[in-house]
Specification:
alpha/beta; four-stranded parallel beta sheet; three-stranded parallel beta sheet; 7 strands; globular
Length: 256
């Protein structure tokens, strides 16, 4: 087997209602690829108070069972692979305090930021939706920076999810601002392997060109929603080719 990633901190479970396979299936796939660290970061629940029920994340009541399941498997697989448990979360001020209280209560290992929405999920545009709005791009960058300044997040998942189709100069200005802010905070940016696998609009060449120029820390994330996505040598190789092209500093492991 060629060289493969030693750690992946971006793995989902069926609790998010759009992933498949058992936790054990993901773990066995990671072991088969020689991974040393596998982190589960399923979509964080939101304490909705208006009766809204999300179809893309677990309920608040499932958080304890989620963490305890991974902890039990970590004990079972000790010596074979190091398992971690966290959440992928948006920074949403409306929910942030309650979510952080839950994260501390269940003793999760880490959070990664995946800013899929800027406000309430039920009535807010998905950030991956094509847009020509300069204001929406700026709000995405502002929200991410503000969230990262809390110190709560390990890294920024699929940072190029924002799908801006307006003037190139505006994109260059705002993404440079984002990259410089996260450089100063020493927050890594994720090359998202699921995006590569499924030929999404991310990873974006124009985004990573800016990252290379600014010199940000970089990490790979499988963003696995199926165990087969863990076994992704070809996608990993493509990600590393992109990293080499833009002289990105990919870190194999992160300090929690």
């Amino acid at each position: 087997m060629n060289h493969y990633m030693k750690a992946n901190y971006h793995t989902h479970t069926t609790r998010c209602k759009h992933a498949e396979g058992s936790e054990r299936d993901y773990i066995e796939a990671a072991i088969s690829m020689g991974m040393e660290i596998l982190g589960f970061a399923d979509h964080i629940p939101c304490p909705f108070t208006d009766g809204y029920v999300s179809n893309i994340r677990m309920d608040m009541e499932q958080a304890d069972e989620y963490v305890s399941t991974i902890r039990s498997l970590a004990r079972e697989y000790k010596g074979k692979i190091h398992l971690l448990v966290g959440f992928e979360a948006e920074y949403t001020p409306e929910f942030f305090d309650a979510q952080m209280e839950m994260v501390h209560r269940v003793k999760a290992d880490y959070l990664i930021m995946g800013q899929h929405f800027l406000e309430h999920e039920s009535d807010e545009t998905y950030t991956g939706t094509p847009t020509k709005s300069d204001a929406f791009l700026k709000e995405y960058v502002d929200t991410v920076i503000t969230g990262m300044e809390t110190g709560a997040f390990l890294y920024l998942a699929h940072p190029d999810l924002i799908n801006y189709e307006g003037p190139g100069a505006v994109y260059e200005r705002e993404i440079t601002r984002l990259c410089k802010a996260l450089y100063d905070l020493r927050i890594p940016l994720e090359i998202n392997l699921q995006g590569l696998l499924q030929h999404r609009h991310y990873p974006s060449e124009r985004f990573w060109k800016i990252v290379g120029r600014v010199g940000n820390r970089v990490v790979l994330g499988v963003d696995a929603h199926h165990p087969s996505q863990i076994i992704g040598q070809e996608v990993y190789d493509r990600a590393m080719q992109m990293a080499e092209k833009y002289e990105l500093r990919v870190e194999e492991r992160l300090d929690l």
